[in-house]
Amino acid sequence: MAAGQAGAPPLAAPQQWRDLGGGSYVLPGGGTLRLNIGLVVGAERAMVIDTGTGPRHAAQILAAVRTVTALPLVVVNTHAHWDHFFGNAVFRADGVTEFWAHANAAREIRESGDLQRAAVAESEPEMAAASGEHTELVVPAALVREQPVLVDLGGMTVSLFSLGRGHTDGDLMVGTPTALFSGDVVEEGAYPSFEDSYPSEWANVLRQLVGLRHRYDYLVPGHGNLASHELVESMAGTMTAAVQQGRNATADMPDLATKAIPMLPYGPEESRWFLKRLKETR
C-alpha cells in the first residue's frame, strides 16, 4: 500500500494465525487491505512484523499476539507506509523498546509520517487527527543499512536485510528459519503500488528474490495470500518487461502521453505512477 493512497477501508478483524513452522506465524488481515502481520517466537523474546493502521488495528493485533505468546516483544516495520507502522505506539505502551527498520524508512517515518495520517480518516479517525491515546508516531531507532542484522530472540535468530530499493527506498526483508516476510516488495492479488517506487531497481530486487526463494518454505507478502515461487518469478518477469516498455515509450513520448498506458501490464492508475517514477528515478 502506498503512502499517498487515501481512503483506507474500515477495519476488518484479523483472521486466525497460520503456523509456518519453526516459531514463525502469519496473521492474515481481512477486508480489502489484506495486510499480513508476522510473528516470530523465540525462547526469550518474540518479534512482531508490522503493526497496522493505527491504535484500533494495533490493539487487535496485540491481542492476537498475546494468544500465542506472553514474551517481551520486538517490532520490525518493513517500510514507511502507514499500514505498516501506524500501530507502533500501541506496542510501545505494551513495553516494546526495540523498533527495527531500514534507515531510510525510519527517516521517512520521521519526515513524512504525519502527512500520511489522512489515509486512515475513515478507519482510524483518532490517528488521522493525531488526537487520542497511542496516536503518536514512534520512529524506529534500531536501524538496518547495507549489511544484514541478526536479531537473537533466544534460540532463534532472525535476519533483517535489504535487497535494494524497490517498493520504497527503505524496504526490509525479514528472514526466519522457515519464512521470508517481504513487506510490499511482493503483493498477492493486486497490482504493485508505484507511488514511492524505483521500478527498474524493484525489478532487480524481485529477480534476487527468485534466487532466494528456495531457502524458505514460505514467502509472506505484505498483502494477500502466501506467495508461490511462480508468483514471484512472474512478478519479476512482468516488471522487467514493463521497465523496458516504459523506457521505450517515454523515449518516444517524453511527456508521458496517455498512449503509453495501454502498453503496460498494470491498471491505468498504476501505469501512470509507474511511468512517472520510472522517469523520476532513471
In words, what does this structure look like?
The chain is an alpha/beta fold and 282 residues long. It has one domain: Ribonuclease Z/Hydroxyacylglutathione hydrolase-like (Metallo-beta-lactamase, Chain A, 4-Layer Sandwich). Helix content is 31%, strand content 17%. The protein contains 8 helices and 12 strands. A 7-stranded mixed beta sheet has the order 1-2-3-4-5-6-7. Helix 6 runs antiparallel to helix 7 and helix 7 packs across helix 8. The radius of gyration is 18 Å and the shape is globular. The two termini are 22 Å apart. The model has no long low-confidence stretch (mean pLDDT 93).
List the SSEs and their pairings.
Blueprint: E1 18-21, E2 24-28, E3 36-41, E4 46-49, H1 55-65, E5 73-76, H2 82-85, H3 88-93, E6 99-102, H4 103-112, H5 125-129, E7 142-144, E8 149-152, E9 157-161, E10 173-175, E11 179-181, H6 199-212, E12 218-220, H7 229-252, H8 268-280
Parallel strand pairs: 4-5, 5-6, 6-7, 11-12
Antiparallel strand pairs: 1-2, 2-3, 3-4, 8-9, 9-10, 10-11
Helix pairs in contact: 6-7, 7-8
